[in-house]
Amino acid sequence: AMFIATGQDVAQSGTSSACITQMELRGDEDDMSLWISCTMPCIETGTVGGGTNLSAQQSCLKMLGVQGAHVECPGRNSGQLARVVCATVLAGELSLMAALCCGDL
Q1: CA nearest 20: which of 96, 90, 79?
Q2: DSSP 52
Q3: Burial letters for 82-104: b for 16+ Cβ neighbours within 10 Å, e otherwise?
Q4: pLDDT band of 105, cuts 50, 70, 90
Q5: Which helix (H) or strand (E) holds 85?
Q6: Can you tell me the distance from the alpha carbon of 75 to that of 14, in angstroms, rounded to the nearest whole number?
Q7: Where is pLDDT greater, at 45 or 105?
Q8: Among 4-8, 13-17, 36-40, 59-63, which stretch is predicted with the lowest mean pLDDT?
Q9: Which of 10, 38, 14 is nearest to 24 (CA)?
Q10: Distance CA 97, CA 93 (A)
Q11: Could you give the count of Cα atoms lying within 13 Å of 31 in the half-sphere of its Cβ?
Q12: Facing residues of 36 across strands?
């Protein structure tokens, strides 16, 4: 859904979805916390051309602050969009783990 909303090439969603999620308990017995990371080494995103030229998709990119090419650093907006997509995947992974732990799946 995120790819469609931001005008990405939907055909790339298969290769871009390769993901490594790691979870680790940190701290001592009195103060434990969960460390979670998500790595998407093959994600392909763009903020210019193709579907990013459609008005609805431009609105989504503008809302995320990544519409078009970055003036000073080409590729910066695309990289930021990739981080937003990865953060969205991370939230989904955390939600799935919570549902699994609660027995809701």
Answers
A1: 90
A2: G
A3: bebbbeebbeebeeeeeeeeeee
A4: confident
A5: helix 76-102
A6: 22
A7: 45
A8: 13-17
A9: 38
A10: 6
A11: 1
A12: 23
Contact 8, 15 (CB under 8 A): no
**What residue has token string 């000073």?**
72
Quote the pTM value: 0.88
The Cα 101–Cα 83 span in angstroms is: 27
Beta strands in the chain (DSSP E): 20-26, 33-39
Contact predicate 36/22, CB 8 Å: yes
Residue type, 57: Q
Secondary structure element (H or E) that encloses residue 15, with its range: helix 13-16
Total count of residues recorded for the chain: 105
Per-residue pLDDT tens digits for 54-73: 999 999 999 999 999 999 99
Closest CA to 9 of 41, 53, 74, 62: 53
